[in-house]
Amino acid sequence: MSTSSARPAAAAGTLTLGGDLTVNRLGYGAMRICGAGIWGEPADKPACLATLRRAVELGVNFIDTADSYGPDVSEELIAEALAPYPADLVIATKVGWTRHGAGVWQHNASPAHIAEAVEGSLKRLRLERIDLYQLHVPDPAVSFDASMEAIVRLKEQGKVRHIGLSNVTLEHIHRAEKITPIVSVQNRYSFSDREWDFVLDHCTAKGIAFLPWGPMAQQRKAADAVEQIAQARGVSTAVVSLAWLLRRSPVVLPIPGTGKVAHLEENVGAAGFALSDEEFATLNAVAPRPFWLRG
């Protein structure tokens, strides 16, 4: 049995983070293994644990999470399902939001909070060092430079291996790059939501991994062109959307999330699905609708 058939996520090729962490280019986002409103335990915990284990079986070796998912729940479930971890598994987590209820998110990227939060993530994930620690979102009440410098101190202390950003502008990236090497950027991005094209272009030019969250436009109706290709090829619109992302740039590392094995297997199938040149050109020619007009 070939590697690609035994571990189909490998069919998407690989991407190297920070020069020393090579991962398959179809990852997994662990936000959806929490309860409703990304709050508390999931309704079907065994299914979520099975999904995490199946992801690794399928060759997914990059998992993205955050301390705010649950809060704490996502990190705890990852460790419960997968620790001790496979040698090639990279777990990325984030800091910068605090939670006070379902659907409620509050900024906190103060240096004091970051220093405290990393200890919690290390404990929950059962790690001695976090491979990729990302600022989840800039805090309007805290100096961006101060937040970044706090994460750099964690790297100097050996608690963090590489540093990434999320929900940032190009200006944030430029400012961060003056402080420390940035190996990843995670912004909302999909076929029908290309607001951050210029950020992706910067990442492509610099060899920075780009992790698109909301890769299927948060379950909004796919563009007609995506649906037509999906119907013609006998796959889901999710597969077409993920395949477009994989082809959009070699630095794109999609992280679709789910708490169901069947949905996971469908998503991972995108790693081996190739759009034709004509299909890719057709999709590129479709102007995405503004975010607030999608439905």
DSSP strand content: 15-25%
In the sheet with the most strands, the strands line up as 3-4-5-8-9-10-11
Helix/strand-derived category reads: alpha/beta
Global shape = globular
Q: Remind me, CATH topology?
A: TIM Barrel
Low-confidence runs (pLDDT<50, min 5 residues)? 291-295
Described by its quaternary structure, the protein is: single chain
**Distance separating the two termini:** 42 Å
Q: Key terms for this structure?
A:
295 residues; alpha/beta; TIM Barrel; two-stranded antiparallel sheet; 11 helices; 11 strands; 38% helix; disordered C terminus
Structural write-up:
The protein is α/β, with parallel strands linked by helices. The protein has one domain (16-287): TIM Barrel, CATH 3.20.20.100. The protein has eleven helices and eleven strands. It has helices at 3-6, 45-57, 73-82, 111-125, 144-156, 170-177, 197-206, 224-233, 237-248, 261-268, 277-285, and strands at 14-17, 21-24, 28-29, 62-64, 90-95, 97-101, 104-107, 130-135, 160-166, 184-186, 209-210. The strands form three sheets. A seven-stranded parallel beta sheet has the order 3-4-5-8-9-10-11, with helices on one face. A two-stranded antiparallel sheet has the order 1-2. The protein has a two-stranded antiparallel sheet with strand order 6-7. Strand 3, helix 2 (45-57) and strand 4 form a beta-alpha-beta unit. Helix 2 (45-57) packs across helix 3 and helix 2 (45-57) runs parallel beside helix 10 (261-268). The protein starts with a helix and ends in a 10-residue tail after the last helix.
Question: What order do the helices and strands come in, and which of them pair?
Answer:
Elements: H1 3-6, E1 14-17, E2 21-24, E3 28-29, H2 45-57, E4 62-64, H3 73-82, E5 90-95, E6 97-101, E7 104-107, H4 111-125, E8 130-135, H5 144-156, E9 160-166, H6 170-177, E10 184-186, H7 197-206, E11 209-210, H8 224-233, H9 237-248, H10 261-268, H11 277-285
Parallel strand pairs: 3-4, 4-5, 5-8, 8-9, 9-10, 10-11
Antiparallel strand pairs: 1-2, 6-7
